[in-house]
Design a protein that fits this description.
With 163 residues, the protein is an alpha/beta fold. Helix content is 33%, strand content 18%. It starts with a helix and ends in an 8-residue tail after the last strand.
């Protein structure tokens, strides 16, 4: 099952494949399939590509959070990566529509990073003032542990299959 097939209607797909030689064609194909499935599409770090494929928004790395206001003025949804409480506050101050807080749990994509854990991550998210999505080590078991903690939802890079 692909991520598009597994995602519930109304969810968002974030295109992050930075190093693909065929990124533009790949992104256009993903965007078309996602829209047919009733999903929203955001493109990481590339507002021009987002506009070209008709994506509704852009996801910014933490270091590029200052780009959020001009992107918002262009009518794009903006999500920002955050790895600390200070980064969450910056994301909210920049007017982000959402922040992705990571890593909440230990994750294979960044094995050297210590997970924040449910309580610490939820406390950070509660003080943000913008919707916060949990990212990092999320699978169906860990997603259940986050229910009722104040997160707007979960984000997953791979391996998440809701049961």
């Amino acid at each position: 099952m692909t991520a598009i097939e597994a995602a519930p209607r109304g969810a968002a797909i974030l295109i992050r494949d930075y190093d693909r030689a065929d990124r533009r064609a790949f992104a256009a194909g993903v965007a078309d399939a996602a829209r047919r499935a009733g999903l929203h599409v955001l493109v990481a770090r590339d507002a021009r590509l987002a506009a070209d494929i008709g994506a509704c928004g852009v996801h910014l790395p933490e270091a590029l959070s200052s780009q959020a206001p001009p992107l918002k003025r262009r009518g794009l949804i903006v999500s920002i990566a955050a790895h600390s409480p200070a980064a969450l506050r910056r994301a909210a101050a920049m007017g982000a529509d959402a922040a992705l807080l990571s890593p909440v749990f230990v994750t294979q994509s960044h094995p050297e990073a210590e997970g924040l854990g449910v309580l610490r991550a939820a406390a950070c998210a509660a003080r943000t003032g913008a919707p916060v999505f949990a990212l990092g080590g999320i699978d169906h078991r860990y997603a259940r542990r986050l229910i009722g903690t104040g997160f707007a939802g979960v984000a997953a890079i791979s391996g998440f299959h809701p049961h």
